[in-house]
Write the structure tokens for this entry.
Amino acid sequence: MANQYHAINLSQGFPDFPADEKLTDIVAKIAKQNIHQYLPFSGYPPLLEKIAALTLGSYRRLVDPNSEILITAGATQGIFTTIQALVHPNDEVIILDPSYDCYVTPIILVHAKPVRIPLNSDFTPDWNAIAAAMNSKTKMIIINNPHNPSGKIWSENDFLQLEKLLEFFPNVLILSDEVYEYIAFGNRHISIHSRENLKKRSIVISSFGKTFHITGWKIGYAIAPAVLMQELKKVHQFLVFSVNSIAQVAIAEYLDAVAPSALYSFYEQKRNDFRSLLATSRFVLLPCEGTYFQVASYAAITNENDLDFTKRLIVDYGVAAIPLSAFYENKNDRKLIRFCFAKKGETLENAAEKLSLI
């Protein structure tokens, strides 16, 4: 609809500004080199070494680049591969709603059962509901931190509650979707990597596409203990075998020139600018602690359901957003919509001008 009505697209989570020129210069240079054939299916060895160093520097976790890291064709492939490898028929997997839409399908494809538990109204985990859903069939819990769509970041207490709960379920695995790990504000992101009691039973998914705003490259990585990674590799080998060679070699070199932690201030400024631009509108902006998404309530504007309102937003005002009900199993309508602020300043200004007319 955004394309049909020539609306400003703040819906999908992809930037409209160019990649870093340092990175594109590297690509231009190496494109003429002889790196166009298959790389090792686990990943380009120098890139694996750089990821190990990045993980150590960011989280003080020492990982073996040869046995505990896997380069994937985007974070979505990493999530799919993890579930296909480790979840089996009749297992149950806990998903916390609202949730990203790629979690459910791979669970269904292995004839397992997705068990979707709503988060609290402030998007914090409802530990009583999660505990009540756990049983002998529970194989995995999926967590997404920083959280899409809400922008919520887990607190220290959330991790303590998870650790306490999983003491009673020693065989339950954690799939930790941390693709927005370097887009966090205020209280910085706490990673599973830093949780001594959890990392040995966890698969952590990261995304260079999100970190370096190159979503179209579709390149991410998974980190897990070797015993779990062996199972992921069995699926990965026959799913994609190996990932784009130019992308891997380019990022390996690029990591010598940039610090992913620099994204904190970059996106925090964009968040602050977007919130400031909407300060005089009738939207009520919810807290945004991480990701490049801003959730807004339109309850003061209309009683329409969120799907109808987002459609009208496109047709009548020329701005595209995402209704939050799309992220819930029960299509829960809380009069909330999600904007993506990973856009050029001009894009955000033009969008805010239109949104302030409502």
